[in-house]
Amino acid sequence: MEFTFVSGNLGLDLAGTVGHRRGERVDLLATPADLARWTVAARLLDAVPAVSEEDLARAVSVREAIYRLASAARDGAPFKAADRELLNRTAERAPAGVRLRDGGGLERTGDLRAALATAARAAVELFGGPDAALIRECEAAPCTRLYVDSSHRRSRRWCDMRGCGNRAKAAAFRARDRPGR
């Protein structure tokens, strides 16, 4: 599995670095190098930051807190204080810097803590705002990705139409088209 950014929120995309949470988990942040690559793939930083095992453990803690908070928001359940406090502490740090270059384009700078602060801020804004009510979980088995349903009718069923949605629709078509039905 490679990194995908289809959740509609950077914090949820960080939480989405674990796939198939209720089955055979796939952790895309298994090493410090994976986390460093994620910060660049997420367009938080332009340069791969230094990441230690301790940094990875901290980022995984933040990721899991975001997932639990998003699940609580989706279910209308109260937030656990420890998760909320961890997310708030992370979001309070200075975010990644952005600058407009002379000829246009962005320059993104900072270290791992700045990148995590930026992702945590996105999650805080989601969970504390009206879009928290739009958090959904992908209906495709075994996907467990959470996303913001920004569709016109608020009827989106899959995290990504090109992946999970396409597979689900193809499976439904094959089921309808079986001989001897």
From TrEMBL:
It comes from the Bacteria. Residues 135-176 form the Zinc finger CGNR domain. It holds the Pfam family zf-CGNR. Coiled coil: none annotated. InterPro entries: ABATE, ABATE_dom_sf, Znf_CGNR. This is Putative RNA-binding Zn ribbon-like protein.
